[in-house]
Each structure stands twice: as structure tokens, then as C-alpha cells.
Amino acid sequence: MMSIVLAIVIGLAFGAVLDRIGASNPNMIGKMLNLTNLNLAKTILLAIGTGSVLMFAGQMLGFVDVGHMSVKAAYIGVFIGGLMLGAGWALAGYCPGTGVVAAASGRKDALFFIAGGLLGAAAYMVTYPMWESSGLLDSIAGGKVTVGTVPGSKFDGMTALPGDVLGIVLGLGFIALAFALPERLTPSKSNLQPAE
């Protein structure tokens, strides 16, 4: 029971942060994707980098149990699904998490987004045997593997590089990128000069 309460509290806190940084606003998502306002992208990079450093450093120091690490298998279908998710995110201005946060903050368009997502999930469940027999769900690149070898985990590493150190280095790279990115990558309309 306590784990459910903790999950609800963490979920509410995460949702509040998503709403506060503008991730539940489709206009902010659009500005991020067309590179006119990268503040949200910088926040995402900072969060991923910080989480990576804390998780892998915690594993190295024994604060985080490596047994809790979960690795998903690589397969062609997940790459196709990722492309579909990205296209849907660009079109709707929501991903599944931000759509729920937007609905909770009163955006009615997010309710249609959630309904569409549930309908898509139901369609996938009904047609799952077809996708499974197509080979799109067969593991590739070793299936459940990590880039580096994480001591004490049950997953193989694709390289002999120490996975914990690699995770920290990549996390620090994401943090550095978050601070190095400018606010925008495209010129503002006020900076555009007429052709001569």
C-alpha cells in the first residue's frame, strides 16, 4: 500500500513540475520542435543528465540496487513506434505524460489526445498476434543489453566499457549540452534582413 501512495505522490510532483516548465503546453512543444525556444529541451536534457548521474553514481556507491535496473529489448517495432510517437508528439503537441498533465490542468484538447492514445493502445492489443508473427517484435542487437557492462546486473554489455562510468559520463554530457544550448537555434523574425 505504501508503494502505491509513494507512486501517486511522486506522479503528482512530476506532473506539477511538467506543468510548471511548460511541458503541458502544446505551443511550448511546437516552439521546441521548430527550434524557436529551446528552454524546454534544455530542461529535458538537464533532467535526463541529472537522473543518469544520480542513478549510476548511486549504483557505484551501493545506494541504488542494480537488481532494480530494467532494460528493454531492442527490436524493429520499437524504432517504428518511436518514430510514430515523435510524429504524434509534433502533431498534437503532447506525449502521453504531458497529455495527462494537460488534461489535469484543464485543457480539453488533451482529453481527445488521451482518448486517441487509449484507442491506439486497444488497437495494438487486438492486433498483437499479427505484429508478433510479422517479426517486428523479434529481438535485435542482442535483445536486452546495455551499452557498457554494469557490474552486478543480469544484462550483458555490448562493450567492455564500465557501464556505471559510461552512464555518468553521458549524463554529464547531457548536463553540459543543456547549459551550452542557446535559447533558440533559428533566427528571430526581427533579425531577418530583406533581400537586396
Automatic annotation (TrEMBL):
Highest taxon of the lineage: Bacteria
Entry keyword Hydrolase: no
Residues passing through the membrane, by range: 43-61, 73-91, 111-131, 161-181
Keywords, comma-separated and alphabetical: Membrane, Transmembrane, Transmembrane helix
Keyword Transmembrane in annotation: yes
UniProt name for this protein: Membrane protein
Taxonomic source organism: Phaeobacter gallaeciensis
